[in-house]
Amino acid sequence: MRLTVLGLGGMGWAFAARATERGHQVTVWNRTPGRASELVGVTEAPTVAEAVAEAEVTLVVVADDDAVLDICLGIDGALASVAKGAILANVSTVDPETARELATAGPADAVLDTPVLGSPTAVRQGAARFLIGGPADVVRRLDPLWADLSRSYVHCGAAGAGATMKVMTNLQLIVGVAALAEAIATARADGMDDNLIRTVFAGSPAVSAAARIRQDAVLDPAHPGWFTPELARKDVRLAVRLAERHGIPVQLGPATENLLTTVLSAGGQWPDFAAVIEALTPK
């Protein structure tokens, strides 16, 4: 399949590499040229319009709503440049309203929201999972592609449904890790050492599977990982904004957003939002 990937951050790079390994003809574009230098077998296009012109499917994999709208809309944007019958799949985590705006702006039945559950490593291994919003027949038509790029997908419903479920999933993940960080910080303050904390929490059914994956990153002063505090705060904000639109008086999301803001205000360049514990550690 002729596949284009717009955006070569960690996730976009992983999708381009995975698709190439699975035998797809891959074209890529990135705001900053040269990111494709280590991707064997891909073509790097100089503009969005040229990148998508001959693609059967275009994956948009960028950081936020503004970047998605900037790349997809406009005279030389992706939606104006896609070939007839081609599909644009937005993998980026965005507000469901943004996903619906793209679906309305694009050719009929040509835009899907396809956020993914999983890290860049999971994408490279074909172990990620798509959450998809859009017409069911279009989704099914791309079953071979989903099989090549992931372990499975869930068709969540009409345009925006995939985005909604991704934002809600990330809310659970990020709030859960913040709760774990609170427990670790408090246990440390009461004299418990990290080995004991690791042993007890690793085997505790009270710690979610998603939070448990980040336990070592919370304990590690370097907070290694790939999901930055900036991206985590952005996703929590999306979740809170969605809840507020529906009159849901959420409390945990805003509190977690405040913790992440504290971390970011301190100026540390942490690679993962596991650094939320930095907002809870006495200085």
What does this structure look like?
There is one protein chain. By secondary structure, the protein is of the alpha/beta class. It starts with a strand and ends in an 18-residue tail after the last helix. A 6-stranded parallel sheet has the order 3-2-1-4-5-6, with helices on both faces. Strands 7-8-9 form a 3-stranded mixed sheet. The mean pLDDT is 96. Strand 1 (2-6), helix 1 (10-21) and strand 2 form a beta-alpha-beta unit. Helix content is 48%, strand content 13%. It has helices at residues 10-21, 48-52, 65-72, 78-81, 96-105, 120-124, 136-141, 143-149, 161-189, 194-202, 209-213, 215-219, 229-245, 252-265; strands spanning 2-6, 25-29, 43-44, 57-60, 87-90, 111-113, 116-117, 129-133, 152-157.
